C-alpha cells in the first residue's frame, strides 16, 4: 500500500493528494470524484501525512498503514456510519492492542471512512516506495 503524498487537512473532510508546492504552502487535489484543488497555507492549517499517522496503543503506537492492511484482509468492513459498539468491535479485530480510552468512536469512523476512500484507488495495491538509504 502506497500512501506517500496522501494527506488529511484539519477542518476539511476527506483525503487529498499533494500535487505541488508554492511559497505559501501546498497544492492539494481531493481524492473524490470532484478532484477539487486547493492551496493549504501551513501557517493557518494542519496537514498530516497518512504515512506518518499512528494510533494510540496500550504498549506501542500502531501505524495506520498496518491497520489499513488488516482492514483490507477483513471479510466485512462496517459502514462508517454504523453504531459505536459495532465499530469498536471491528476495530478490536483489526487493531488489537489499541488504547480504548484514547481512541474514540469518531477516530474509528474517520479511519473506516478513509479506508473506503482509498480502497478504490490504484495506490492501494501499489507497494510503498523504499525510503532512500543514506549515501556514504
Automatic annotation (TrEMBL):
Pfam families registered for this protein in UniProt: DUF5606 (PF18347), DUF6852 (PF21186)
DUF5606 domain location: 3-50
UniProt xrefs under InterPro entries: BVU_3817-like_C_sf, BVU_3817_N_sf, DUF5606, DUF6852
Domain DUF6852: start-end pairs: 53-118
Record protein name field: Uncharacterized protein
Organism: Arcticibacter tournemirensis
